[in-house]
């Protein structure tokens, strides 16, 4: 009788190979947001964070999550990154980017510096094969950001997919087909949180003028906007439909909206603000 072949009761699956490193240069507000988002996405062990100004306590916290931290390019030590996120301040980019020429030869480079063109990055990095400009916004620090990105023609489909994965670690993202549209993106979503904060300030001031105490006015203004944003996020209705659902014919909201919407002046004011920010974006890009 032939002997039966013994099969182990349990077998270990081969471990998936770790991907190539993801480097983040500059770990300030936005770079730190990306690092925390990527750690939450399970990519902590692939992160190399480079920032000479990184606080020791922050460095220890990142290392506890599997990331490597360093003050300069010496930490790369010949490694070949899959992606490099340049998150330094725009005015520091010309001095910082050239240090990553070698690392950028086989990586997709993602710049999140406002007003820093592909042309400038191409020169500083000595024509790397794949460049992406992205504009995230402040809510990325909570994983609630929105980023728009433009990729140079050299970026492959796989690299674009990687960029999507990295940007979506801190929120949502959209692709643009023209680089110059990033100036409009900066004016809308990049600067947009400041417009909302200004509205909260103005609403609180109006509440005080209506007789409410400063403390009550601030709470009402802040929580009203927070709640409205949450409702907008969870509803499938358009902003216009949501506005109409709050507006009873002949009621108080309608009376207020008649002031704000008279001759489309509120819409015009916002349009002028976005246009001014967009124009400034072009000016900044030309100066670099």
Helix content: 40-55%
Structural class: alpha/beta
Write down the Rg: 24 Å
Number of strands: 8
How far is the first residue's CA from the last residue's CA? 83 Å
Order of helices and strands: EHEHEEHEHEEHEHHHHHH
Strand content: 5-15%
Low-confidence stretches: 4-17
The biggest sheet amounts to:
8 strands, mixed
What is the overall shape? elongated
Indicate the mean pLDDT.
92
Strand order of the largest sheet: 3-2-1-4-5-6-7-8
State the helix count.
11
Question: Could you explain the architecture of this structure?
Answer:
It is built from eleven helices and eight strands. Residues 4-17 have low confidence and may be disordered. Strand 7 (145-151), helix 5 (157-167) and strand 8 (171-175) form a beta-alpha-beta unit. It is elongated, with a radius of gyration of 24 Å. The chain is of the alpha/beta class and 288 residues long.
